[in-house]
Amino acid sequence: MAGDNDADRLKARDLIREIKRAGIRFIVALPDRTTSEHLLKTMIKDPDFQVVQVCKEDEGVSICSGLYAAGHRSLLLMQYTGLLDSINAVRGVAVQGKNPVCMMVGMLQKEPGVPPRQSKRYGLRIVEPILEAMEVEYHNIEAPGEADKVVPAVEAAYSESRPVAMLIGREPI
Amino acid sequence: MMKRDEMLKVLARHRTDEIVVAVYKAAQDWIHIAPSDLNYTFTGAMGQGSSHALGLALGRPDKRVVLLDGDGSLLMNLGTLVTIANAAPKNFVHCVCENGTYETNGGVPIPRHDGFTFTGVAREAGYVNTYTIDDLEDWDRNLDAILKEDGPIMVDLKVEPGEDYPENFPRLYNTEYRDRFAKALAES
Q1: Is there a contact between A168 and A35 (Cβ–Cβ < 8 Å)?
Q2: Which domains occur in chain A, in start order?
Q3: So what's the ipTM on this one?
Q4: Whole-model pTM?
């Protein structure tokens, strides 16, 4: 059971530290309620990052791919609805195009401590099965220690030239 | 109105070390007219060319990026104009090969072709400058200056089909060519 104490919550500063450790300097983003307040707003102010705001999430899949061809690592930050809206770009650009598009996906309104597949919300329940059908690796990140998943997930995506999704299960504080 | 292949041959003559991102019909023609490891055709899905080009422009601000977009493609990702204007890459030349149709998909007209200008939307979005060119001599005469101008700028190129080059999507999206592109770009 997920607690409500701060000690039991995922920290935005831990995610940011791990994103930097993964060598990411470009953040491509469309605001998401799960990650806007403590993650995106903090990164916008952080001179270590260059944040590219997009109007629609599928743009971000391709911007990250262009950055990759230019020799840079990047992170696409979006809500799960944006991931669902970007399926054709993830299909053609990231998977078939073998681009290491690293997606950090806010799972808006997922119940704390409940696996996405067991959510009461249809939109959340279908995320993991869709990623599996598309052969996109994913990682659930919700508890404090799970920020440690970021670096190996990003490293594997770049070394294998394939996308990865990191599903943020609860708003980091 | 310009024949697309003739318009592209002019660009090939003026090109020095620019990255050229091309989509659909322009890409099919361009890889035959101006083969180069700095051609980027690996856009993967319709509408995405401008976003790939933006990533390249932001990643390599020292290199000029020329995008050969399509009108149907741009309509599919019109918000890209705001994204690009907001990011404001000075090295970005956004050419729209406007033929008024979804040529690859059967030649069906694009919506609102007679009542809508891409340059108008680009200006409203915040592009620094825009041009509309429908004459080959104008294109030839102005291209050197356009390629040196601070962007993002849009060039609406009024084109019609010219010589028909063979269609080869597997070649356009071939990741081995993408890896060659990345290597050539890293070395340039």
Answers
A1: yes
A2: 6-168 (3.40.50.970)
A3: 0.97
A4: 0.97
